[in-house]
Design a protein that fits this description.
With 339 residues, the chain is α+β, with helices and mostly antiparallel strands. Helices cover 22% and strands 32% of the residues. It holds the Pfam family Gmad2.
Length: 339
């Protein structure tokens, strides 16, 4: 943890060290960096110059910083194991004195696989528990922007409390019902929660969660819904087993972009080859390209493709071609506009 009173440069270096081995890919990295350098500029002098130099060095080395260090106050210590009711997360439409808007990584499901979105929330008090609770509630309640994504958890499920013991997070649930929504796979529903907690933990002082405990009405359960193993500390299943093979990360669903923008793709596919297609009015294809991701399966590869289009409404699609029969597989699409 960065010591209280550290300079912006020290905070930035600490963040780089903490994030070098694990990065949760975020579409809002640049605004976060600008926010930190703006804070440094207000403090003035060589501290600002050092912070900017550290950012430039990180970018040149290919290291991307996605964590919000919240340099206006020290991170909340992640040491309490007690599960307590947490009222710090409020609906994203509610804004009051001291409320803080944030974007949090949240996992949803589609066709038996997990997809992630960054979703806005407003926290009445910005704490580790508040961030984790807000993300888990959005995930379990299915508050996705993409209408193709959904939750595997039954309607009415609640988050009773969040506990943090070192890097282990305990989620106490209520009203879990008799089974997953629409008879979905119970094990994947559990992974939806585990992946969400792991992702949002990178935006807390935990930095990297080492597991999740699930309680129901304050008590541990060995098997949720009689079929999903929830005994002990749960960990993320291999990405290849649970995550979607292809994602469109940017433009996000419903986004408005300038005429020159970047399509950001990710995928776990053979040889890292995916296809990018953009459709305009009437479904007409206006852009198409074969894209090589940074790495092939079983690792998660990424690619950024610069595109320029005239104003209008579009749908961006990404998919891969089956090496067996040349069929189109795992299409992920987002509607967006160029303004």
């Amino acid at each position: 943890m960065t010591p209280q009173g550290a300079t912006p440069e020290e905070r930035l270096r600490a963040a780089l060290r903490a994030r070098a081995d694990e990065v949760e890919t975020s579409p809002d990295a640049l605004p976060r960096i600008r926010m930190r350098t703006a804070r440094a500029r207000r403090r003035g002098g060589w501290a600002m110059i050092g912070a900017v130099a550290a950012v430039a060095t990180a970018i040149a080395a290919g290291v991307v910083v996605f964590n919000d260090n919240r340099s206006d106050r020290p991170p909340t210590p992640a040491t309490s194991s007690t599960v307590v009711p947490d009222t710090s997360a409020v609906p994203s439409t509610s804004v009051g004195p001291g409320a803080r808007p944030v974007n949090l990584p949240v996992y949803f499901a589609r066709d038996g696989r997990l997809y992630r979105e960054f979703r806005p929330a407003t926290l009445a008090e910005d704490t580790d528990r508040g961030r984790i609770r807000a993300a888990v509630e959005m995930s379990l309640q299915g508050r996705a922007a993409d209408p193709d994504y959904r939750t595997l958890w039954p309607a009415g499920v609640t988050v009773r409390g969040i506990g943090i013991d070192g890097a282990t997070v305990t989620v106490d649930l209520g009203d879990v019902g008799s089974g997953p929504a629409d008879d979905g796979p119970a094990a994947l529903a559990v992974q939806q929660l585990v992946y969400t907690v792991s992702a949002v933990s990178t935006y807390t002082s935990i930095r990297k969660s080492d597991g999740v405990r699930i309680l129901v009405d304050g008590a541990p359960v060995a098997r949720l819904w009689g079929s999903a193993d929830t005994a002990g500390v749960l960990h993320q299943a291999p990405m290849l087993d649970v995550q979607a093979p292809v994602w469109v990360i940017e433009p996000a669903q419903g986004a408005q972009v300038g005429k020159s923008f970047t399509v950001y793709l990710a995928g776990i596919v053979w040889e890292g080859t995916v296809n990018l297609r953009i459709r305009g009015d009437g479904g007409r294809v206006v852009y198409e390209k074969v894209v090589q991701l940074s790495v092939g399966a079983p690792a998660l590869g990424e690619a950024r493709v610069p595109v320029t289009l005239p104003p209008g409404r579009y749908t961006v699609e990404s998919f891969y071609i089956s090496p067996k029969d040349s069929s189109v597989q795992w299409v992920d699409d987002h509607e967006f506009s160029v303004g």
